[in-house]
């Protein structure tokens, strides 16, 4: 091809090289590229499946459910397949609506599977009296979704209120109240194991 006069030297040099060769590669590099191309076509190699595996992994990560939720009243985490933790926030006043939202969110996280519950009530928690009038575990009792519940209370007042609530709305599954989170976990492990 004709090179216009006054063109930079590298254009002249590039025009002189045939288009089907790579001036930077050696014969060893070309051999490696050929082996990689042959290996990529072999259906028995990981390299052949790499693009597919990347797409699969990416889509799985994008579609993987989150095992953690936040509501206005609590932080809810599915810590393992058979255990959900509900940690109520300090310094708030719980309403019936708050507790209903927590239960709804917790059930979504459980995804219809049987789980144990670890519920943590901090000492700086307050509540509206109307909270005591609802049976928040009725649906779980009906469906059998909850296997056992351990409640960690941060004060004697909450211990008495939880006991009163459990007496009035019997849970129908093992239920444990304690001030010690470690003891609650040990108790849950015994009942879920």
Q: How would you summarize what this structure contains?
A:
Helices cover 45% and strands 20% of the residues. It has 193 residues and is an alpha/beta fold. The protein is elongated and about 85 Å long.
Q: Please, could you describe this protein's structure?
A:
The protein is α/β, with parallel strands linked by helices and 193 residues long. 45% of the residues lie in helices and 20% in strands. It has seven helices and eight strands, in the order αααββββαββαβαβα. The strands form two sheets. A six-stranded mixed beta sheet has the order 1-2-3-5-7-8, sandwiched between helices. It has a two-stranded parallel ribbon with strand order 4-6. A hairpin with a 3-residue loop joins β1 (68-70) and β2 (74-80). It is elongated, with a radius of gyration of 32 Å. The model has no long low-confidence stretch (mean pLDDT 81).
Set down the secondary structure blueprint.
Layout: H1 9-16, H2 27-41, H3 46-63, E1 68-70, E2 74-80, E3 83-88, E4 93-94, H4 96-110, E5 115-121, E6 126-127, H5 138-143, E7 146-153, H6 156-168, E8 175-178, H7 181-192
């Amino acid at each position: 091809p004709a090179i216009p006069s006054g063109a930079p030297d590298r254009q002249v040099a590039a025009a002189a090289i045939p288009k089907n060769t790579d001036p930077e590669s050696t014969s060893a590099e070309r051999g490696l590229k050929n082996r990689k191309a042959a290996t990529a076509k072999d259906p028995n190699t990981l390299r052949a499946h790499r693009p597919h595996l990347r797409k699969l992994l990416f889509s799985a990560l994008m579609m993987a459910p989150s095992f953690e939720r936040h509501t206005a009243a609590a932080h809810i985490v599915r810590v393992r397949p058979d255990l959900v933790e509900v940690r109520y926030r300090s310094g708030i006043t719980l309403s019936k609506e708050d507790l209903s939202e927590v239960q709804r969110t917790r059930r979504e996280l459980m995804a219809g599977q049987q789980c144990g519950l670890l519920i943590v009530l901090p000492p700086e928690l307050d509540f509206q009296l109307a909270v005591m009038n609802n049976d928040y575990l009725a649906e779980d009792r009906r469906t059998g979704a909850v296997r056992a519940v351990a409640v960690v209370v941060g004060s004697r007042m909450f211990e008495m209120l939880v006991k009163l609530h459990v007496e009035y709305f019997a849970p129908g599954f093992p239920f444990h109240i304690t001030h010690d989170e470690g003891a609650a976990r040990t108790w849950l492990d015994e009942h879920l194991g």
